Amino acid sequence: MTIESKPVTIIMIEDDEGHARLIEKNIRRAGVNNQIIPFTNGTDALDFLFGEDGTGEVSAHRHLLILLDLNLPDTTGVQILEKVKANQHTKRTPVVVLTTTDDEREIQRCYDLGANVYITKPVDYDGFANAIRQLGLFFSVMQVPETA
Amino acid sequence: MPITSKGFARYSLALIIVGLLALIGVVAATIWLVERTQVYFEEVVEAREGRQAAVELRNLLQDAQSSQRGFLLTLDDAYLEPYQNAIGRIQPAYDRLAAVLAAYPQADEPMAQMQIDINDKLAELSQTIDLAAAGQSDEALAIVTTDTGEQMMTRMRTLLDAVIAAADERTFNGIVDQRGAANALRIVALIAALVIIAVVGGAAWMVLRYTRELDYARSEVEALNHDLEARVAERTTDLRRANEEVQRFAYIVTHDLRAPLVNIMGFTSELESALSPINALVAKHPEDSTDPVIVEARQTALEDLPEAIGFIRSSTRKMDGLINAILKISREGGRALKAERVDLTDLAESTVGAVQHQISDSEGEASIDIATPPVFTDRLALEQVLGNLLDNAIKYRHPDRPIQIEIKGRQERDGRIFIDVSDNGRGIAPEDHDRVFELFRRSGNQNVPGEGIGLAHVRIMARNLGGDITLKSNPVHGTTFTVSIAPDLRAIARSRA
Predict the structure, then answer these.
(1) Which three-class secondary structure string do you get for chain A?
(2) How confident is the model at residue B431, as a pLDDT?
(3) Distance from CA of B478 to the nearest CA of A (A)
(4) How confident is the model at residue A6 (pLDDT cuts 50, 70, 90)?
(5) A59 in a domain, yes or no?
(6) Which of B372, B338, B363 lies closest to B484, judged by CA?
(7) Per-residue pLDDT tens for A17-75?
């Protein structure tokens, strides 16, 4: 991630605070020091991404990367994904779906809607920690475009 | 009142019997009457014969006498012609009459008298004619005028008249009897005809009614059948829905359970890694320190915390295993089965091949004897069934003997395929025969690691393949699992769709 020139903000939408904390810890262990903004529900995340007016104007010229869980208490991650990819200001923002579901149709649907990466959370903690750490390594080399 | 089929049979039988009795009556009456008619007829014939004989005899006697009288008066030979004709026929006529009357003893005496009279009369006639012909007409007339000839004649005529009258009466009576019998037959036939008409009418009415009831019952059954099919379809849909619901439920539950478990495991790891700086801190103090705070901290850092973490670890690992097992089974149940042509011998060989090295290690052996046609079933599921059973046979082997595994396949007459997997392992206690198929249940000595899901999984798959699994076991010979599957899964899939 082009940390030096344009600081990328990681938006983490994850309802399980424990998971959120573990994800954050393991990303940090991979040497990623970017700002991580956690959201535990969809509404707050949508407010942050699209602003009070819902136009997405607030996200213009931001460098964002979204970590998205599909199971949220108030809305589904798929809906958030749909909105992000449909909004002209946020549509280039990379979305990493990180969820427990490995249902084939769900995966297809997310990619159809424009998800950039789909990762199933490993069941056991070691696998989980390992996967997140590798994801962090991946983040450290990936390019994130500026939103329109 | 509806006619039951039993009632129908009983009524029909009764009607047939009544009709039969009427017919027998008619036939018996007819036979009896024919017999009677024969008797009457014979009697009438006999009476007529007697009458004829009597009339003939009377006429002949009269002809002979009047011819004699004419000759005596005229001495003309022409008058003798009737006499000449008659005298030869008199005795035969008498004989005929005697034959007819032979059956009547009361006629014996008069008939004997008549024979004497005939002889005397004929003698008298020839004597007088001879005398007259010789010219002794006076002597001949003298004989005639003695009246003895006339008396004989009168006696014979009286008897013959009586015979004629009796014969006439017999004939008349016979005709009357005949008519009476015919009337009786007519009445019997009429009654029988009425009875038969009634029987036939009753039978026809009953058949009609029964048929109508049958028709009604059949249409009712058809309607019920239709209803039943609809109900079965409805229930099937309900069941499928419930099944899907259960699977979805299991899936959701396991997913939701897994999320907090990942947290527990994750933070346990964090806790564990947090232990090392504390250990380092504790290690900075001399081991023989008597400061109670340090002693307690050392105790906590080196013993209590690692122990607690170890228990949390092992428990969460176990829980994780259980959740994964449920997840696996719920996923397996939800997997769409794909029916394809499977040669059981090939399948058994490849499954045995996968564990061959383990069998060989124990110097054991496996034999395959499949005598079934190829089946249409889900290859993967059947492979898992056999694979699980073989794994168990090896896992729970008897420690003192080399592994012996036998796989036998056969097809029953109803088409179902049975696969027996026999081992010579340690066996399963009788009280556990049902339990081993339940999730998380295991039998016997728990000296081999396992989660208790293999057989539960096998049973679910066997049932999905249209069959089931049973077992026979004893500790001496080992265990035989019998898996049954449907020969053609497509038929089941169609009926499920």
Answers:
(1) CCCCCCCCEEEEECCCHHHHHHHHHHHHHCCCCCCEEEECCHHHHHHHHHCCCCCCHHHCCCCEEEEECCECCCCEHHHHHHHHHHCCCCCCCCEEEEECCCCHHHHHHHHHCCCCEEEECCCCHHHHHHHHHHHHHHHHHCCCCCCC
(2) 84
(3) 37
(4) low
(5) yes
(6) B372
(7) 888 998 998 899 888 888 999 999 888 999 999 988 888 888 888 889 999 998 887 88
* CATH number of residue A31's parent domain: 3.40.50.2300
Given pLDDT bands bounded at 50, 70 and 90, which one contains residue A4?
Answer: very low
Contact A16 B260 (CB under 8 A): yes
SS3 B284: coil
Does the domain made of B5-210 have the CATH classification 1.20.120.1730?
yes
Closest residue, chain B, to A126 (C-alpha) = B266
Residue A80 resides in a domain:
yes
Domain membership of residue A100 as a residue range: 9-141
CB-based contact A96:A66 (threshold 8 Å) = yes
In this complex, the residue of A16, A101, A124 whose CB is nearest that of residue B265 is A124
Predicted pLDDT at B495: 57
Contact assignment for A18 to B269 by CB distance below 8 Å? no
Number of domains in chain A: 1
Taking the C-alpha atoms of residue A112 and residue B187, their distance in angstroms, rounded to an integer, is: 103
Does A96 fall in a domain? yes
CA distance A89 to chain B (A): 33
The answer regarding whether domain B336-496 maps to CATH 3.30.70.260 reads no
